[in-house]
Design a protein that fits this description.
mainly alpha; Amino acid/polyamine transporter I; 2 domains; 21 helices; 66% helix
Amino acid sequence: MTKLERAKPRRQLGLFDATMIVMGGIVGAGIFANPSEVAHRVHTPFLILGVWIVGGLIAMCGAFIWGELATRLPAAEGGQYVYLREAYHPAVAFTYGWGLLLVTQTGGMAAVSVIFASYFRALTGVNWNTSAIAAIALLALTGINCFGARAGSNVQSALMLLKIGAIAALVVIGFAVGHPSAAGLKSGDLLGQPASFGLLKSIGAAMVPIAFAYGGWQTATFVAGEMRDARRDLARGLLIGVGGVVALYLAVNLACLRVLGPADLDATTTPASDVMRIALGERGAQWIALAITISTLGFLSQSMLTAPRVYYAMARDGLFFNSVGKLFGKSGTPVVAIILQGLAAIIIACSGTYGEILNFEVTVDFIFFAMTAVALFILRRRSIGSASVTYRVPGHPFTTMLFVLSCAGIVVSAIIASPRNSAITASNARGTRNYWRQQLRLRAVAASHCYSLRSRSRLRCRSGRHIHGKSSGHGSDHRTGRRSFNRASGVRPDSRCRPLSASQRAPFLACGGKRLGD
């Protein structure tokens, strides 16, 4: 057994950590600007608050689904990545993991780091380059998280509490200064226009920024392998965290409507700053800028804590470089994976190419949200985790199907709102197709090679293909193909046979290869 196989992350996170991670993954800078984005698309208080409520219900359905998945696979290192792998195929998880690194997570972190840098410059007056400030922030958070999940979680929790305080202050001031009559909350005009396809299209368009604002709860599952009791605490943390964010978001929108009214909310692009400026003058605007700075830094801290655990899980499965799957220190921290995430975000932040990525982030995210929700049907049918499950989705299968259909509607609305997204998403699908082609070719390569180790055994995969080789005597797990094929195990291939490269070991992951008799 190699050091890579023996090492396990230290389980040190509890319910409070899970709740703060869930909320920190959702609440970023968006809530301070998205109320006006929604008001640009729907124009009455009833519709503005209504679509935020609908978005909150969809997010709660997602929390229910991810909560049951967390109890079915409580030790899943990588969370959603493992759910997709177990329900579908390693190729699906492979696509999700690489998309997370190259597109959704890293692109979002790069954009938020630039927002942080912009507000930091405005608050402090420093004349540094925006990209340099973003890089310094990302490097600092990378270093903190390299000390372990506990250190990263403590920083993330502190920043999340500060965000909650800032949002609560905005709500209290908004309710104290505003008035229901200014918001038009008692107006009899609910829709603002006759019911039509155009109105439905406007509501769908309004759901896109709302979906982006509510997204992020799933990242808490990435650290399931480092929770003391993931079956209990992660499920509860998802429900408490998402419920708390829904309450905060509705309160912020109600406060903005009371102070600005629907017309002024539609006219502005900085609703939170306008509310504070009306209440406290320019000093109020500075306070909200500080709140946005803290909020963006908190989001970056949460992302640096959670996302590298997916790359670590991929490396453990043989789908990434072995070094990314190594753990360091007493806390068992995937330092290489964390550094990889930090460097990738810095590169995109400094290149200034993240804008196009963010334009289709919602599309890609909600495709995988829908697939993960469908995975619950598959895991239930296969009875995976049924013996130990402690929580089930209320109203399943209806609530689960409602979530899937809602995700599909949001994806369609995002593509209609920005048709270029469909071309980018199609290119991602072509990448998956190319992966499958490579797997078929590599299976043929793997079948033509043999290994001579200590004791002979026959290998087979689910496809029925037989592969002859020898085991190292201590057993081999050919779902990962790690012990027999990893050079780090100290086993030398026979001179008659060529060793398989990391990419050539992938067929064993793709077909779930096993030893005969396992």
